[in-house]
Amino acid sequence: MAQLLTEAEIQERASLLPAWTVEGSKLQCTRKCKDFVQAIEFVNKLVEPAESAGHHPDIEISYNKVKISLTTHDAGGLTNKDFELAGVISQIH
């Protein structure tokens, strides 16, 4: 099982991901797209990196907005896996 990060480690890593915020035990970001079709295209681009990492985000779609939430469920909070996948997702356009 992945090791939970300390609060200091979480804040340090979060500072490197300006589009993301820490909300309780989740790392979250919202991506605004041109329209619904573009939002779905963006979500489809998340499949391969999530599958490769064996780590899957919670995703909410509301028309042109995609909210992504990461947490390591089996560890009960934030781990390196969350920040690594957030970094990859941040590079997807």
Report what the structure shows.
- By secondary structure, the chain is an alpha+beta fold.
- Helix content is 40%, strand content 23%.
- The protein is built from three helices and four strands, in the order αββαββα.
- The protein has helices at residues 7-14, 36-53, 80-90, and strands at 21-23, 26-32, 58-62, 65-70.
- Strands 1-2-4-3 form a four-stranded antiparallel beta sheet.
- The radius of gyration is 13 Å and the shape is globular.
- The N and C termini lie far apart (31 Å).
- 19% of the residues are buried.
Topology record:
Elements: H1 7-14, E1 21-23, E2 26-32, H2 36-53, E3 58-62, E4 65-70, H3 80-90
Antiparallel strand pairs: 1-2, 2-4, 3-4
Helix pairs in contact: 2-3
Which features does this protein show?
4 strands, globular, alpha+beta, single chain, 23% strand, four-stranded antiparallel β-sheet, Gyrase A, domain 2, 93 residues
Distance between the termini: 31 Å
Strand order of the largest sheet: 1-2-4-3
| Helix-strand pattern | HEEHEEH
Give the helix/strand class. alpha+beta
Number of helices: 3
Low-pLDDT residue intervals, each spanning 5 or more residues: none
CATH architecture: 2-Layer Sandwich
Largest sheet: 4 strands, antiparallel
Tell me what portion of residues adopts beta-strand conformation. 15-25%
Could you say what the CATH topology is called? Gyrase A, domain 2
